[in-house]
């Protein structure tokens, strides 16, 4: 076994690998760029080596610097994590040339499976079901259109060296192929240094299911069942689960057998993932093989009890697999949510800045439920524009799917982040979706369920009454504290508060009466939909997360103070809640409401980013849908289009400018 390993990565995956290495008694070396000098993975490792400036091409992708770091520190092996150099055969070969072990598959397997075009040819020769498509290199957009017409629309354009949803576009028309080819090729070149793009048939209403495989250096290969990753946005996975609600035992066995056969054909000797696109009828086709650890590996670990990082290290050290196929079981259900630094109300555009507050739920195993949070950040640190926007992976495990989902929803309600925009409200809302809970999934789920994009839903029905009851409890706790203030004007007797209250959730009014009973508060709704709730909590003003009970069941609500009230968040709903006396409510009704300033005359930068192109000129008349400019952020290219017919009056930015969120790019006449 090794004594010291280097982790050629950053963020949550570097931290994840360090945890297992430390448990195994291995010393660890971190590498970092200027942007990550104070990052968590640097703090956790025993040693750290500086690589260079923030751009990955000048730091994390420099093979010679990582080899030099190994020699400087005496690291005997390198774990690449995912992304960056994890699927570069040249990296594995460079390490081997320096007598350093690569904790991953052999270079031949990486070359055969890491290239999406070559892997499909290889899989087809091995009699694995392959999606119909054109696997040759496409030289230009016109050729891509001709091929797409031959295959039949819709088609998927994919970067051959791609991954993580980058360099991928779905096209339904010739025009979409032309634009998609250009964007996919550009993203592929900037993200992977390889601009090759291929075209394949896009399966309508598909599901994305993948099989985890594990092999050693002695020809032993097993699979650890499947993960379903159908909840995606822009071809980027958002929620994963294991096992899949689609598969039966027969289909699972067939998919596993194909995955193992493919892995054996290339002498696969590490952890890897064979990805399939599946029809709702359980038919399935090979998509690609990722010759590395997957982002979503924790759900597999939780249902099998296998530490995949440990297995990769042991295999790389020359140990044979101790686990046999017949010993691989499915224990319960696991759900993973990816917490991203992005604004779901602005079409999920990236967000950067300082994590003013970062309070994840406690990691624990209790009552048959496990909560796990894989992260690479801590409170006070920066989310950089240079890397992937993922902050953390929140994973819950329970005896069955519904309980795992409920545990995930509760954990999301307890996950507090301030300082940047993030997708927790969207994830919380999604957890309440009847379609999601029923398991009726497809890769089009988000587009179909949120056709107009995401906006925090208004509280209604049971959720509205729950939030109103909690708002009333918060107000009551505050009033109880006021009773204890010394030196009040009314000497001799304590201040008394009215039992009748008005709770305003935004513009919606709830009339309630209060009755304190021991540590609980009885909240009775009067007028209209009359109901009663018993609520209790040891919450104190200033705490972000209220943990308590309502009618005997646990509840978690985030509470942030605003003028005369609190912003409450629960199950994806966020609302300004204020509680008044009857007289206060009468007076508040006379207060004028502030009107929002109009910004329709301007194109504002929707996220911090770099202006790559300006596609119009001053004085030009443009139609709704025309491209105005393109802004790059976090390795993604975002085309900004005109929302209506306008004339460009003034252009205030130029290519190469680095803009803050809401910076004015151009003015319309």
Automatic annotation (TrEMBL):
Cofactor(s) for this UniProt protein: biotin
Pfam short name (any one): Biotin_lipoyl
SMART domains: Biotin_carb_C
Domain ATP-grasp per the UniProt entry, residue ranges: 120-317
Keyword Manganese assigned: yes
UniProt catalytic activity: propanoyl-CoA + hydrogencarbonate + ATP = (S)-methylmalonyl-CoA + ADP + phosphate + H(+)
SUPFAM superfamilies according to UniProt: Glutathione synthetase ATP-binding domain-like, PreATP-grasp domain, Rudiment single hybrid motif, Single hybrid motif
EC number(s) reported in the record: 6.4.1.3
Keywords: ATP-binding, Biotin, Ligase, Lipid degradation, Lipid metabolism, Magnesium, Manganese, Metal-binding, Nucleotide-binding
Pathway per the UniProt entry: Metabolic intermediate metabolism; propanoyl-CoA degradation; succinyl-CoA from propanoyl-CoA: step 1/3
Residues annotated as domain Lipoyl-binding: 594-669
UniProt xrefs under InterPro entries: ATP-grasp (IPR011761), BC-like_N (IPR005481), Biotin_BS (IPR001882), Biotin_carboxylase_complex (IPR050856), Biotin_carboxylation_dom (IPR011764), Biotin_COase_C (IPR005482), Biotin_lipoyl (IPR000089), CPAse_ATP-bd (IPR005479)
Keyword Nucleotide-binding: yes
Every Biotin carboxylation domain range: 1-451
Entries under PANTHER family matching the protein: CARBOXYLASE:PYRUVATE/ACETYL-COA/PROPIONYL-COA CARBOXYLASE (PTHR18866), METHYLCROTONOYL-COA CARBOXYLASE SUBUNIT ALPHA, MITOCHONDRIAL-RELATED (PTHR18866:SF33)
Annotated NCBIfam families: PRK08591.1
Name the record gives this protein: propionyl-CoA carboxylase
Organism: Methylocystis borbori
């Amino acid at each position: 076994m090794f004594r010291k390993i280097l982790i050629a990565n950053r963020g949550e995956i570097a931290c994840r690998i360090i945890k297992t290495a430390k448990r195994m008694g291995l010393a660890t070396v971190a590498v970092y760029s200027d942007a990550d000098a104070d990052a968590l993975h640097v703090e956790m490792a025993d040693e750290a080596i500086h690589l260079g400036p923030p751009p990955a091409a000048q730091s994390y992708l420099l093979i010679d610097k990582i080899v030099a770091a190994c020699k400087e520190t005496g690291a005997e092996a390198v774990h690449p994590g995912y992304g960056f150099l994890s699927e570069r055969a040249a990296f594995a070969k460079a390490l081997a040339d320096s007598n350093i072990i690569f904790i991953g598959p052999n270079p031949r397997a990486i070359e055969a499976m890491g290239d999406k075009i070559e892997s499909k040819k290889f899989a087809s020769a091995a009699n694995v079901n392959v999606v119909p498509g054109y696997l040759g290199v496409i030289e230009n957009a016109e050729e891509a259109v001709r091929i797409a017409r031959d295959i039949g629309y819709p088609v998927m354009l994919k970067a051959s060296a791609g991954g993580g949803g980058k360099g991928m576009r779905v096209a339904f028309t010739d025009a979409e192929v032309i634009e998609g080819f250009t964007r996919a090729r550009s993203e592929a070149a900037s993200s992977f240094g390889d601009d090759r793009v291929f075209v394949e048939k896009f399966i309508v209403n598909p599901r994305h299911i993948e099989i985890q495989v594990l092999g050693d250096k002695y020809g032993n290969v097993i699979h650890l069942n499947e993960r379903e990753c159908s909840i995606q946005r822009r071809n980027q996975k958002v929620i994963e689960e294991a096992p899949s609600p689609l598969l039966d035992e027969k289909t699972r066995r067939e998919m596993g057998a194909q995955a193992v056969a493919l892995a054996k054909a290339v002498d696969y000797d590490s952890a890897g993932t064979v990805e399939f696109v599946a029809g709702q009828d359980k038919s399935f086709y090979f998509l690609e093989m990722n010759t590395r650890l997957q982002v979503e590996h924790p759900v597999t670990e939780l249902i099998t009890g296998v530490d995949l990082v440990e297995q990769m290290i042991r295999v790389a050290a020359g140990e044979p697999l101790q686990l046999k196929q017949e010993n691989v079981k499915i224990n319960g259900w696991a759900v993973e949510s990816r917490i991203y630094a992005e604004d779901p109300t602005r079409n999920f555009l990236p967000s950067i800045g300082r994590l003013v507050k970062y309070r994840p739920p406690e990691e624990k195993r209790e009552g048959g439920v496990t909560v796990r949070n894989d992260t690479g950040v801590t409170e006070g640190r920066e989310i950089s524009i240079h890397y992937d926007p993922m902050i953390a992976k929140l994973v819950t495990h329970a005896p069955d799917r519904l309980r795992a989902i409920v545990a995930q929803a509760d954990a999301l309600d307890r996950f507090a982040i301030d300082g940047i925009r993030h997708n927790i409200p969207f994830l919380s809302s999604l957890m309440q979706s009847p379609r999601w809970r029923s398991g009726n999934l497809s890769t089009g789920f988000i587009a179909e369920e949120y056709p107009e994009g995401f906006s925090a839903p208004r509280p209604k029905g049971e959720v509205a009454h729950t939030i109103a009851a909690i708002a009333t409890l918060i107000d009551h706790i505050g009033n109880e504290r006021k009773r204890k203030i010394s030196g009040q004007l009314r000497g001799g007797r304590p201040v008394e508060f009215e039992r009748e209250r008005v709770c305003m959730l935004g513009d919606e009014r709830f009339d309630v009466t209060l009755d304190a009973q021991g540590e609980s508060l009885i909240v009775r709704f009067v007028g209209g939909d009359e109901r009663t709730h018993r609520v209790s909590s040891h919450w104190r003003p200033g705490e972000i997360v209220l943990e308590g009970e309502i009618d005997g069941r646990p509840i978690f609500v985030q509470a942030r103070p605003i003028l005369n009230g609190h912003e409450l968040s629960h199950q994806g709903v966020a609302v300004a809640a204020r509680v008044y006396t009857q007289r206060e409510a009468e007076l508040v009704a006379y207060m004028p409401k502030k009107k929002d300033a109009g910004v329709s005359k301007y194109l504002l930068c929707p996220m911090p980013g770099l202006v790559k192109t300006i596609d119009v000129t001053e004085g030009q008349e443009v139609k709704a849908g025309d491209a105005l400019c393109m802004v790059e952020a976090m390795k993604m290219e975002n085309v900004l289009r005109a929302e209506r017919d306008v004339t460009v009056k003034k252009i205030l930015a130029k290519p190469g400018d680095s803009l803050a969120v809401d910076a004015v790019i151009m003015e319309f006449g």
